[in-house]
Each structure stands twice: as C-alpha cells, then as structure tokens.
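Appendix B. Extra example for self-study. Work through it before the problem class; the solution is given directly after the inputs so you can check yourself.
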Amino acid sequence: MTYCVALNLEEGLVLCADTRTNASLDNIATFSKLHVIERPGERVIALMTAGNLAITQAAVTRLTESIPDINGNGGNGDMEATRATLWTVPSMIEAARLVGRTVRDLFDEDASNLMRHQVLFDATFLVAGQVGAGKQRLFMVYSAGNYVESSPDTPFFQLGEHKYGKPILDRVAKYDTSIEDAVKLVLISMDSTLRSNLTVGLPIDLLTYRRGSLHVGLQRRIGEDDAYFRTVRERWSEALRTGYRSLPAPQW
Amino acid sequence: MTYCVALNLEEGLVLCADTRTNASLDNIATFSKLHVIERPGERVIALMTAGNLAITQAAVTRLTESIPDINGNGGNGDMEATRATLWTVPSMIEAARLVGRTVRDLFDEDASNLMRHQVLFDATFLVAGQVGAGKQRLFMVYSAGNYVESSPDTPFFQLGEHKYGKPILDRVAKYDTSIEDAVKLVLISMDSTLRSNLTVGLPIDLLTYRRGSLHVGLQRRIGEDDAYFRTVRERWSEALRTGYRSLPAPQW
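Solution. Structure tokens for the complete assembly:
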C-alpha cells in the first residue's frame, strides 16, 4: 500500500509520501511515490502516485520523459518533444488534464490484459504546483481520469492508507496553517500510519513549496535515523500520553 | 458501518460501541451493538456485533433468547431451555464456541439466499466476560465461525471502522492500563472515528467490568449532550493542538 498526503495552503504546498510497495506481504520494496518537475522561476509540479506500480511508473514516465532543453528541443528527439509532458503544460489545470488523459490511455492499453489476470486497474494521483503566473493548485486524479481540486474549505487530499492519519488532519489542518506547522502535521499523520500499518514504510519523502516562489522549498528523504523525525515521533507520543492522562476522570 | 472496541485488561474489561447502522448513506438508523448478559455473582458476558444487521440480530436473538429462570425453566418453554445460550454456557471459551456455531448455522440457512442478491454474508463479534470462577476472556469471532483470543501482548480487539481510532490504542493501550484510563482511551478512539467517518455515529454504548466482580461495573449510553464526553472531545482536541504546536521547528 501507500500513504501520500498533500496540503494546499495559503502560504504554499506541503507534500509527504511513504516509499513502500508490496506485491504481497512477503515482497516489499522501496520506490519513490513523489516526483518533482522543477524549472526554477518557471514551474514546480509535484506528482504523487498510489496503486499498481506498473501503471503508476508507466504514467510517470510518459508524464515526465522527453525533457525539452532550454531552447525547446526535446531530450528524446523532436518527435517526442511535440508530445505534452508536465515539463510543457501551460498551467496546473492542463497538468491535471494531462495526468487524466495519460491514465485513460494506459487503461485502454492495459486494463483488458490486467483483467484476464483478475488485477484491477488501480492508479490515483495527486498533482500539485504552480506554473508561471498561474495559480498554485492541488488536484486528485482518479483511475478513470477524472479529477477534483482542493479548496480552502478542504485544503488537503490523501492517497492510499488514509484513515490512520486522517483524524489529526481533520482536527487541525486549515487553509491558513503555516508551512512549518503543516510539516509537523504531515509527519504526525505519516507516523500514525507507519505505526499502525506495515504496508506503509520508511523512508518518507517530504516536499515544501512557497506560493509564488516557483522553486522547490525543501525536498528531503527522511529515514529511521533522521533526528528531527525521531524527535517528532517521541514528543508526539509523549504529548498524546500526557494529553489523555490529564483528561479528568469520568464523573459517572 | 460500525466501530466497536474492547480492551481486556489486568483490572477488567472496557467496551465501547457506536450505534449507527446504514443500509446506504441515505438510510441510517440507531441500533445497539452492545448486548449484555448479566446474572450478578454468576456471569457477565458482553457481545458486540458488526456486519449485516439481519444476520447479527438473528445471532443475538439465538444467543440470548430463552432465558432460564432461577430454577432452570426456560423463559420460552422447556424445549427452548435445553438449547445452550450465553445464559447457560459454562465458560467463556464455550461462549466463543457457541457464537461461532451460531454464525455457522446462520450461514447454512441464509448465505445462499444472500448471494443470489450479491449480498456478502458478513458478521463479526466480540465476546468478552467472565463466568463463575473461570477466567475473564475476550474473543473475536469471524463470519466463518472461527475465533481468536486477546492476550496481554495485544489486549484489545476492534470491529468495523477500526483504522481512525487505532493509532491512539497502538501507542497507549497496555495490559496494565487502568479501567479509568481505558475509558478515556476508548472515548478518544471513538471520537477520532466519529469525526472522520459519517457511517459511525452517536450515541455510543460504554461498558466496564472489574475482573472477578461478576457484575457490570458501568453501563452507559453517551449522546451528544453527555457533559463528560463533551469535555473529553474538547480537551483532547486542545491537547492535540497544543501538542503539535509545541513540537520544535524542523532543523533542516
């Protein structure tokens, strides 16, 4: 399984994803689920993925390959460069549409073969970022290629094993939460998931983006030995224990 | 859906269940999922249910009907009184076996008809309590009629929508947690579930049992207007907010 969470806040974006994939419980591996397209000063688009790894990898390849150079010439030849990728889409809404079209193309190509093996076509995506003078936006794209956009009322989306880490977000995450606080929040939300579900695993990938900056703020891989994440885990556990112990005794 | 949780602790038992049932999202109703068999000084057995309401109601009826009077005469006639119920089983392990046999009987009777309507045969149970001089025990009985028992290493079981409320239990619930602290814990766990999932709803049923007492400690229905539950919800939200705000800022 997977756990990805993205917050689209007034100040910017905070994204966090685990890296565990599992073919079954006895076959786990580490794959990044957070992919970043950055051309400083021009665009930052982050793509997070959940679902069948063969499908999501194929999607990421199509969405990011053929990187045009600064003169617009395609990295894989001009033929390739004429196809739209996340490096060339003119806006975030076009980025979401492109992800949707790509997953529909993959469905047309693969779904019938997967079904012959009783494998569901399952791939969902979070697409977040900002292109040029356009708006900072966050979209969730479904396996069917349709998509929804976050709003100030609901400033976060999750993929995969979302339930363990949702209560803290439901209670605390608001549109005006600062990037710094949101980093704490996604780490707490991830930690709750890691502790309760083996199919979500370290290391985790974290990314922050400040609205209007058009360059990645922080991008960090966090493993077992990350001192700050360890502090968050210990202090948060302590805060929960203290919090519940300090509740008054039932008056019944 | 449903959320039920039961802790089997050194001091005793703490059980909590919501009361929402839903045929679909636009058809919800309130049904108790916590059923108590109590003969003070002789037995306390609590039965919690999740799954298809028609199946769980049929099971509860079979498991609890035909209450023999103090002379052993059946409430519904002597024919009925000869059939074992939770009022007559000699031990908790026999209680778990009886629940298992009952759900298997119901499967034999109903499953093929349900399948004709694409309805899964789905019913799971928590059975907790103490009979006479026997041990206090907690079992989870599956739709297939097989069962598992809690242990000091894993002193709690959950039914239904268990994920939202699991992180706090995973972190804090231990075999030596006191009944009073466990009451706070299950209310916090339930609150997290209520906030994040509409298919779990108030009021909730709470029951405590002190090991060896052979009578129910506390049995209480808790609604929106319960002052203590309101205090727990508010103070816990406050503790979470304070806890995450007091985390140090990232050092990166």
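Self-check: The longest helix of chain B spans residues 92-116. If your reasoning did not lead you there, revisit section 3.
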